[in-house]
From TrEMBL:
It comes from the Eukaryota. This is non-specific serine/threonine protein kinase. It comes from Solanum verrucosum. Residues 309-590 form the Protein kinase domain. InterPro entries: Kinase-like_dom_sf, Leu-rich_rpt, LRR_dom_sf, Plant_receptor-like_S/T_kinase, Prot_kinase_dom, Protein_kinase_ATP_BS, Ser/Thr_kinase_AS. One of its GO terms (cellular component) is plasma membrane. It catalyses: L-threonyl-[protein] + ATP = O-phospho-L-threonyl-[protein] + ADP + H(+); L-seryl-[protein] + ATP = O-phospho-L-seryl-[protein] + ADP + H(+). Keywords: ATP-binding, Cell membrane, Glycoprotein, Kinase, Leucine-rich repeat, Membrane, Nucleotide-binding, Phosphoprotein, Receptor, Repeat, Serine/threonine-protein kinase, Signal, Transferase, Transmembrane, Transmembrane helix.
Length: 592
């Protein structure tokens, strides 16, 4: 029943035997990236008929891509980048109808790029860079309206980029060789464009569309370019004969190579620094699959999965939309979060959440399987959490959490927020931490979700401003009064939620709290002498082994919550310190 086999980033130093295909037909993800593997791709590997993702990149694999790859009918991600593979791309690849990502860059492949690749309607990323392809880019590729990334640089591609390139309506990243047609302005989704290290000449860099914010770095290595809007690029001085002046050509011959060399050195330095930083960060972040791919879903399939949004499948309703339980055609049970398209602010939140989820992976964050965006719907397809929300466990009559469960859930949430704050070069602030946004799986492991109003802080800044508020009662004072967003605001919300989990009291409980007395002040008045009088009585009375250690544990938790919710942001502790203290509390007083 093995489903995931991940042995990458180990010095295995050998070849893969054909017998590896005997492991299991149920394996969905086989990850053996950067493991010093040599020799050919074993044909036995292609007997793993259930594979969804096959990652063999960053090794020393030689030989060709076997045509037997057609056996992997379920394959959605094929990653064999940065090896020593030779030969052609077999047309068998075109029969992998579920393929979403194809990464063959950094090999020694040559010949024609198959025309039939354009028929793979599910493809979102094609990476063929740093090979020896010499054909034209197939015309069929310019009709791939769902393609997000097309990376073809450092080949010997022939011909010009056709006007049909405007058909790539969803394209986000484009890196290739060729002249620059005006239809590039139609690429409305494009986020970056790299035309460097080619031999483009006698081209004027357009000033509109996707070129409005471009810089010299995108055009390094193309000596004959000119344009008005980029400071470092010479203006297009045309003589009466229609040719550039000799003086301009002389400048181009001298200046551009020097600037190009300088920028390349700078670029290599940045890449080296980022790799070092990534390795350092990876020691503290739980290892998860680097890339997991899933089949895209359409509006029609979401309708079918939810029985046309039948009320019996409705899990919950919030301010931004509704959540349904659904079953995809593959049989996978999922939660489908359907946003309210009538609310313009909600549509902006969809874009924000997509941006955040594109950058995060952690066991305590709710996994987003895929999204659906059309004129009819904006929806997230999420991993289904059968145990429901933390809010439900706190306030539904037949739900009860013991002390160990509460501490474990609080620790799970802390680890998720620590990852958001410290697991990236650019910290992510959730901005709306509360029990309703914490969901529990079948093993009661907590997962944080709903990133609709979260903020990605710039690398050079530790704070941002916003007009979008979170939920009353959980908002940090500086967040509500001044719109100041920082990681310490999440720490405050987390501390309030921790108190709520231990007391079973909402911060907006009108029976107890008012403008003169809030949840934190209530706890502060009771701490430490009478703290047991404000704790949720249910789990104390039902706890079989409640003793003095349990009381000390609760007191330590409340002290930590008060440290999280201090009035001044700079006085609060970090989530990294929260996780360390919670680990110690759990191990010391609960013995796990």
């Amino acid at each position: 029943m093995l489903r995931y086999l991940q042995v990458g980033f180990n010095p295995l130093n050998g070849g893969l035997p054909d017998s590896i295909g005997n492991l299991s037909s149920t394996i969905e993800n086989f990850h053996i990236e950067d493991a010093h593997i040599n020799g050919p791709i074993p044909r036995g590997l292609l007997n793993m008929s259930g594979l969804i993702a096959l990652s063999l990149g960053e090794n020393n694999l030689a030989g060709s891509i076997p045509s037997d790859v057609v056996k992997l009918e379920q394959l959605q991600g094929l990653y064999v980048n940065n090896n020593k593979l030779q030969g052609h791309i077999p047309e068998a690849v075109c029969h992998l109808s579920n393929l979403v990502q194809l990464s063959l860059g950094g090999n020694e492949l040559f010949g024609l790029i198959p025309e039939c690749l354009g028929n793979l309607s599910m493809l979102q990323a094609i990476i063929l860079s740093s090979n020896k392809f010499s054909s034209k880019i197939p015309l069929s590729m310019w009709k791939m309206s769902s393609l997000l990334y097309l990376i073809m640089s450092q080949n010997s591609i022939e011909g010009e980029v056709p006007q049909d390139i405007g058909g790539l309506k969803a394209i986000v990243g484009l890196d290739l060789s060729g002249s620059i047609p005006l239809s590039f302005a139609n690429l409305i989704s494009l986020e970056y464009l790299d035309l460097s290290l080619n031999v483009l000449s006698e081209d004027v860099i357009p000033s509109g569309g996707v070129f409005a914010n471009s810089t010299l770095q995108s055009f390094i290595g193309n000596k004959g370019l000119c344009g008005m809007h980029i400071m470092e690029i010479p203006a297009c001085a045309i003589t009466t004969t229609g040719q550039q002046s000799k003086s301009k050509k002389l400048v181009l011959k001298i200046v551009i190579p020097v600037v190009a060399a300088s920028f390349l050195i700078f670029l290599f330095a940045i890449v080296w620094i980022m790799k070092r930083r990534k390795k350092a960060n990876s020691k503290d972040v739980e290892k998860v699959p680097e890339i997991r791919t899933y089949q895209l879903v359409s509006y029609h399939e979401i309708q079918q999965a939810t029985n046309n949004f039948d009320g019996s499948n409705l899990i919950g309703v919030g301010g931004s939309g509704s959540v349904y339980k659904g079953t995809l055609s593959s049989g996978t049970v999922v939660a489908i979060k359907v946003l309210d398209l009538q609310n313009e602010e909600v549509c902006k939140r969809f874009d924000t959440e997509c941006e955040v989820m594109r950058n995060v992976r952690h066991r305590n964050l709710i996994p987003v399987i895929t999204t659906c965006s059309s004129e009819y719907i904006r929806a997230f397809v999420l991993q289904y959490m059968p145990s429901g929300s933390l809010e439900r466990w706190l306030y539904i009559e037949d739900c009860h959490l013991n002390l160990l469960q509460r501490v474990t859930i609080i620790l799970d949430v802390a680890q998720a927020i620590e990852y958001l704050h410290h697991g990236h070069d650019t910290p992510i602030v959730h901005c709306d931490l509360k029990p309703a946004n914490v969901l529990l799986d079948e093993e009661m492991v907590a997962h944080v979700g709903d990133f609709g109003i979260s903020k990605i802080l710039a690398a050079s800044k530790s704070m941002a401003h916003t007009e979008t508020l979170g939920t009353l009662g959980y908002i940090a004072p500086e967040y509500g009064l001044e719109g100041r967003v920082s990681s310490s605001g999440d720490v405050y919300s987390y501390g309030i939620m921790m108190i709520e989990v231990l007391t079973k009291r909402r911060p907006t409980d009108d029976e107890i709290f008012n403008e003169n007395l809030g949840l934190r002040q209530w706890i502060r008045q009771s701490f430490p002498k009478t703290i047991m009088e404000v704790v949720d009585v249910n789990f104390i009375h039902e706890e079989e082994h409640f003793n003095s250690k349990s009381e000390i544990c609760i007191g330590s938790m409340m002290e930590l919550a008060l440290d999280c919710t201090k009035e001044m942001p700079e006085s609060r502790i970090t989530m990294r310190d929260v996780v360390k203290r919670l680990d110690k509390i759990k191990n010391t007083y609960l013995g796990t």
